[in-house]
What does this fold into?
Amino acid sequence: MEQIKQYIKSKAGFIIDMDGVIYHGNKLLPGVNEFLLWLESSGKQYLFLTNASERTPKELHEKLKRLGINVGEEHFYTSALATASFLSSQKPNGSAYIIGDAGLIHALYSVGYTINNVNPDYVVVGDTHGYNFEKIEMAVNLVLKGARLIGTNPDVSGPVENGITPSTKALVAPIEIATGKKAYFVGKPNPLMMRIALKRLGVKREEAIVIGDRMDTDIRCGLESEIDTLLVLSGITALEDIDKFPYRPQYVLNGVIDLV
It folds into this structure.
């Protein structure tokens, strides 16, 4: 076990999920402080890569600050930013009807996209609490008129303090069913997210490791990008759940606390 921990710690780049790895809702998980201090003092490159799309990097920075951790905004990358980057490469300066929160709206504005509820190029759905029937109805009709349907991430649910909350794939489902059109999801396990992360870290995939709590997104994404994977059991996946999947993580630990 000690050998495995030393191997993990020898990596140059760390791609770290947030929910279930760093915190649960507004509760910091054990060992996180020490782990981040170790990353900083060891001169490691690290990036928090989250499928959650509601918050901007500034808001994520502020959230961690409230939990007692000070990490620069440059260390955060969200599925909203990846979605904006993807759409900008597909159709520069396009327009979108957005069902989502500040993180997604801000990301699309920052690449030159405009909000459009008449004839948008895309209908983009992300994590949001501002979800209602009128928005679904509008999205359905825009997709039927030709707008392409995009989801920021394919998570069905996410952990919160009092249980789970529906995530983007669950919110997109009614639009898919009503239109008969399938959404394209940009976030993990889409390897696009990992390629962007490696570029931002400036490390080769052999020098990196993905740390996450979900088999279906974090671990699958690492495997499909040929990056070593560490599953932590501090989030959504329990030890007995691993066998339900046809693939395995390279390493399993209780949480980041095990590394420090």
Notes: The CA atoms of residues 233 and 254 lie 5 Å apart.
